[in-house]
Amino acid sequence: MQEKIFTLYSAKETETLAYSIGQKLQGGECIELVSDLGGGKTTFTRGLVRGIGSLDNVSSPTFTIGKQYKSGVITCYHYDFYRLQDPGLLAEELAEALEDDKGVIVVEWAESVAHVLPDDRIIIMFERMADNSESRICTIKYSEQYAETIESISL
Ligand SMILES: Nc1ncnc2c1ncn2[C@@H]1O[C@H](COP(=O)(O)OP(=O)(O)OP(=O)(O)O)[C@@H](O)[C@H]1O
Ligand SMILES: [Mg+2]
């Protein structure tokens, strides 16, 4: 795994970074978002979905667990498994979405479905800075397959 680190000074910057990543996606990608509560995962997803070209309203799927956003031929599947001990059938639904070669899969709180996610995925982590500001340290971990996509990103 390789790593790229960004400092995001506001929610807007988180969306901007996500937007530029979204613009490069073509389907078949899997992104795992990792942070504490309120770290910015759904905010990131909003930017990503706009970057893919969808104007759909992006909100936290905490109660519905999964949502889909469409843009042309691409479908973004957005999951949030917060506090879900046993994903049951949802793990199968996720596995099916991962088979969609025009699908972009985004997962928040993936612990309970980690066994379903491909090793070859993009892992994006958000950490708050100690100064209590809006800033986040964003670490992107990616395998060789995604090197070109991630390395061309700038803020
Ligand atoms: N740099 C930042 N990046 C992202 N969000 C930020 C940032 N600074 C402040 N925020 C705010 O923090 C909140 C992040 O909420 P968001 O729902 O995106 O987090 P989350 O990680 O999805 O939370 P949850 O763990 O509940 O799913 C939003 O209100 C957003 O405006
Ligand atoms: Mg969220």
How does the SSE layout of this entry go?
Elements lengths: L1 E7 L2 H14 L4 E6 L6 H12 L13 E6 L2 E7 L8 H9 L5 E6 L13 E7 L7 E7 L4 H5 L4
Parallel strand pairs: 2-5, 2-6, 4-5
Antiparallel strand pairs: 1-7, 3-4, 6-7
Helix pairs in contact: 1-2
The protein binds adenosine-5'-triphosphate and magnesium ion.
What does this structure look like?
Helix 1 packs across helix 2 (41-52). The protein has a 7-stranded mixed beta sheet. It is globular and about 40 Å long. The mean pLDDT is 95. The chain is 26% helix and 30% strand. It starts with a strand and ends with a helix. It contains 4 helices and 7 strands, in the order βαβαββαβββα. Strand 4, helix 3 (89-97) and strand 5 form a beta-alpha-beta unit. Bound molecules: adenosine-5'-triphosphate and magnesium ion (MG). The site of adenosine-5'-triphosphate has 18 residues, from helix 1 and helix 2.
Question: Can you give me a brief rundown of this structure?
Answer:
The protein is of the alpha/beta class. The chain is built from 4 helices and 7 strands; from the N terminus they run E-H-E-H-E-E-H-E-E-E-H. The model has no long low-confidence stretch (mean pLDDT 95).
